[in-house]
Each structure stands twice: as structure tokens, then as C-alpha cells.
UniProtKB/TrEMBL annotation:
GO molecular function, one term: amino-acid racemase activity
InterPro entries: Asp/Glu/hydantoin_racemase (IPR015942), Asp/Glu_race (IPR001920), Asp/Glu_racemase_AS_2 (IPR033134), Asp_race (IPR004380)
Record-stated family: Belongs to the aspartate/glutamate racemases family.
Protein name (Swiss-Prot/TrEMBL): Aspartate/glutamate racemase family protein
Naturally occurring in which organism (per UniProt): Hydrogenophaga crocea
Regions crossing the membrane: none
Pfam families per UniProt: Asp_Glu_race
This protein's UniProt keywords: Isomerase
Amino acid sequence: MKTVGVLGGLGPLATVDFLDKFYRCGDACQDQDHPPVEVRLCTATPDRSAFLDGHGPSPLGHLREAAVSLKKSGAQFGVLICNTAHIWHRDLELASGLPFLHIAEQVRSFLEHARTPVGLLCTPWTVKGRVYSNVLPREKLVEPSAEVLEHVLMPAIRLLKANRFDEARQLIARVLTQFERAGCEAVILGCTELPIIAKACATRMQLIDPNQLLAEAARRYAMER
């Protein structure tokens, strides 16, 4: 089995959600059947969106340091538990020498045979940084407008980080309704906090959980000989 390096804390609940899914998706019968995992909860990392907007320090130094630390601790590959931070996916691979599974690549594989457009819930910089649009065909992806990103999704994500889940769910519900009207049959929960409230969101659309897909991919890769 390979040792998994989890670069998390961006935020902490998203990392807990990933680890829960990672350990539940296997067929282990005892502790020793699980792959070893190294975790870094990098909660001191500067805000990714604030930096990209030009309002704060760079998070890249913190992320590189954590990736190098994972490598030194024996990790053989990494996962990054933040969609927006995948803007620096290649930087982290080069800095650490670790291959990092890409969260959007796991979604692309899942949607390989999708025939209808898929909505994307995310931060503004997940859109601007083309985290998903560099991987998914543009004709398959329905991205939120700049107004929705700034005035609905970012406030919802801030509420999630403050554990104000019901208020966040109400904002997310507004965007889900817009995607339904646009003809989407599925929506990507493209911020790693969003799956935390997914079950409470009433919608006919399929809610695609990148955290779940990344956990399953990490499990498969770790178990390969």
C-alpha cells in the first residue's frame, strides 16, 4: 500500500469530510487494511481568494512547505483538499516531488458520458483560475455569473466556514434553482465545504461531490501495488 499525503485545513471541516469518505469507501475489515495517511491541517495558510484578489499575502509558501513536509514524512502521493488551491497544483508537485491527484480530473472521469450541461458551484477564483474549465469541455460546463459568485456563493462559503449551515443552505438553494432553469441535470459541488450541507439541499439535480470522488481515487491509488 502507498502512503497518502493529505494537504488540508483549507478549511478543516472539508478535510474531516474527505477523511471520513476516504475511510468509508474501502472494504477494510480491520485497522491494518487501511492505507497509511499523513495529514497536514494548514489552517494558518493565508486566504487563497483574498491573495488572488490582491488583498493579502500569498498562500503558496505555506502550501509548498506542507507538501514538502508530507514528502519527508513518507507520503508517496498527495491530495489537496481545496478546489481553488488547485491553481497551484503543478507548483506543489514541482516543489515537493510528490504527484498530486487533481480533484477536477476525478470529476471529468465521472462525467465522461454526461450528455447534458453540468452546473458548477465554486469560488470566483475556481472559475478565473480555470480549475474545472481546463479539464471539462466548455460546452458541458455552466459556470455561475460574476454577480452570483460574488454576492451569493462567496457569502455562502463564508457562512459554511463559520458553521452557519442553515443560512448557507438557503443561499445555495437560490443558485441550484437557477441551474435547474438552465437545464442542468447535475451540479458540481466545486468548493470542498459544500458537500457538508449537500444532503440538506432539496433539488432534483444530481449533486456531484468532488470530495467523494477524490477520496475514492486516492483509495484506489493507495491500494495499487
